[in-house]
Each structure stands twice: as structure tokens, then as C-alpha cells.
Amino acid sequence: MASKIHLPFLRPLPIVRFYLTQSSLFSRQISASPWLQKDAVTAKKAPSELTPPQLPYHVYRTTSQQLPVYHIAKRGGNLHQTRIRKINGDVMKLREDIQKALELKEGNIAINPTTGHITIKGHLRNDVMKFLEKSGF
Fold it and tell me: Which residue in 15, 22, 53, 75 is deepest, having the highest Cβ count within 10 Å?
């Protein structure tokens, strides 16, 4: 009878999986492998950086970890718009906060009720991104 040879160094590496937690921050679920735990300890941020802002809305980042703020040109390039996507929560409150921060008129910012996107007249991508980064997104 042939006996099985145990070769622990040939076992497949554990899969590192990313999950979206309730606090809307990415966290790593890591196996008990010691060489992966060292990387996880060094990759952790300070606790103050992990606390999400206490706002009634949240803007999720894209898969490439960018803010979902886009320039849009319509009507042959004559109509310039800025669109904010991936909004969860109170979209009206986010609209009001952006309107106050960027000092926009009432008619220059609108919410698409079907998609939940916020559309702003003009190319204000950099200003909106600065506002979102200051808000903690």
C-alpha cells in the first residue's frame, strides 16, 4: 500500500478577499498564514482615518478607488455638465450641501430621480471632488 506524502509547501495560497463592510470601508479578510499577517499589519491605517463621516449620504468610490465625478459634454460640446454617481442615502441633503459649498443657483443643480445622479451645470469636477474629499469620501 502506498502512503500519502504530505508536502505542506505545495498547498495553494489562501485567497485574499475584499468585502464591503457596514461602515463602507474596505477591509481584508486574511487567513492565519504568518507571511500574510505581516503585510496586513503594515497596511492598516490609523484609527482616526478609518472613522467614516456621520452624514446622511455616502458617495461610493469606483472600482479603481476614484470619486465618481464626471465631465459631460452634450449638444456638440456646447452644454457642459458635471455628474456625480454612486450616491447612497439622502441625495437631497448632498445636493443642498454642494449647492451651499459651491455657491450655485437653484436651477444649476438637479437630481435625476430615476438614476439618483446629481447633475450640475458647468465643468465643476475639480470643485466637487475637493468638496467630497473634505467631506471624508
Answer: 53
DSSP 16-52: PEEEE-TTS-EEEE--S-HHHHHHHHHHPPPHHHHPP
Compute the distance between CA of residue 27 and CA of residue 40 in angstroms, rounded to an integer: 10
Q: Which of 35-49, 98-112, 123-137 has the lowest mean pLDDT?
A: 35-49
Q: Tell the burial category of 50 from Cβ atoms under 10 Å away from its Cβ (0-12, 13-18, 19+).
A: exposed
The whole model's pTM is what? 0.61
| Structural contact between residues 69 and 125, judged by C-beta atoms closer than 8 angstroms | yes
* 102 contacts 124 by C-beta, under 8 angstroms: yes
Q: Quick one: how far is CA 95 from the chain centroid?
A: 18
In the chain, the amino acid numbered 7 is L
